[in-house]
Amino acid sequence: MMTPDAIVIGAGPNGLVAANYLAQAGWSVLVLEAQARPGGAVWTEESSLPGFHHDVGAAFFPFGPTSPALRPLDLEGAGLVWRHAPLDSAHPAKDGTCAAIGRDLEASKQNLGEDGPAWEKLARWHAGTRDQLLDALLSTLPALGPMARFGPANLLRLAAVAASSGRGFAERTFRTEAARRIVPALALHTDVGPDDPFGAIVGFMLAMLASSGGFAIPEGGAASITRALLKRLGDLGGVVRTGTRVARIVVREGRAAAVVTEQGEEIAADRAIIADTSAPALYLRLLDPGVVPTPVAESMRNFKHGFGTFKMDWALSGPVPWSCEDATRAAVVHTGDDLDDLARFTAEVRRGALPRDPYLVIGQQTLADPTRAPAGKHTLWAYSRVPSVAPGGWEKVKQSFADRIEARIESLAPGFKERILARVIVTPKDLEAMNENLIGGDLGGGSAQIQHQLFFRPMFPYYRYRTPIRALYLGSSYTHPGAGVHGACGRNAAEAALRDEG
């Protein structure tokens, strides 16, 4: 390949989306990936037993079929098939109650009982505004045009949610404890607890997406998303080189001009370099300290990461025997007995303790995609939020904490342990080794708390994908709008580069 117009550092989903948008615009693109395979945390492996296909990171995709950054790429035309379970999100508790929501409005209403009308009001509002809302939330800030199309009344309604804690919104909106735990439990996909100020919006958005696009599951595993992005890029002439770690970015006369690999190869870029890396890695490792403004470097040294993640995968002889019937039909199951249980869990993680009865996000992919396991068998995927560093070290405590996770599932699904054929434990340290953007097992590209969002992601004033270095852009989940396989961070960075080049 001759000198490319653009180099993209990192072949995660945002890097591949950025590369696709640049290639669609006619640019020649080279993607350099440090690992031996592309995809980052969007990949699938037979990690437990032969024939059982487990997603190594992201596993269900509320933005997948609906994101305005992904839809123009027509990944379905490149072979991607989305599957759905009958329900999208179930929330069983030890008292026997089980709230459940999904794309089927009538089923959700029936499940929520006296809170059905309140849910219907929210879901119908979202159904009528979803595309405008996603365009506004996923566009480059300040997104004045998309915000105007969303409309002032809808903005005010959304702002009222954003001004609430998860607990405040839940108690104001719903009557039953079962319904009240839905939004705060969904917020704990990140590091936002039920009592955090301005914390309701994260869980609210996931709940609304469950009601429309649903928690979609790619047939064959998350790697199918990566393969579709690679096919699209290959068709456009883009090149991906794996096993090629970028050691530093060369800056000449204030402009990003080239990269140097760990093997010592210098590769020039004629127009732009886009980094699908962590913000601290870009500013503190890839760039010479002399070209990084002191306030930027200081901000990166104090960067606020989200919770760590402890993940498990199981090969099962049959489906999970949930006591709650709705949980047997849900793509994702969330454990959390009530708001106080979720608050207790959050406090334990924040003080550096391993949760004694961990909150869990549990993925049941084989309910919708039986190709992932041998006939009659099932996979199970789950994670809990944890401190990045465990007391005594992860090697010492990982087996006992895995037992705690299994005990919590067993309390809601008696007989679960009897169906385990094999289990795989993935600690925060393991996640970072797999994908160095997941620092300390942080899945979100930094904290999702409000003070680290919008104009402060990753820092002010560099929130619009540009950096202090000309022709250098940051396009990872460390930029707005953050985590979620929506591709918006990569698309927006690519569009910034294209605008700057006219």
UniProtKB/TrEMBL annotation:
GO molecular function, one term: oxidoreductase activity
Ranges for domain Amine oxidase: 15-496
Subunit structure: Interacts with COX5B; this interaction may contribute to localize PYROXD2 to the inner face of the inner mitochondrial membrane.
InterPro entries per record: Amino_oxidase, FAD/NAD-bd_sf
Taxonomic superkingdom: Bacteria
Cross-referenced Pfam families: Amino_oxidase
Annotated organism of origin: Polyangium spumosum
Role summary: Probable oxidoreductase that may play a role as regulator of mitochondrial function.
The protein's name in its UniProt record: Pyridine nucleotide-disulfide oxidoreductase domain-containing protein 2
Organism taxonomic ancestry: Bacteria, Pseudomonadati, Myxococcota, Polyangia, Polyangiales
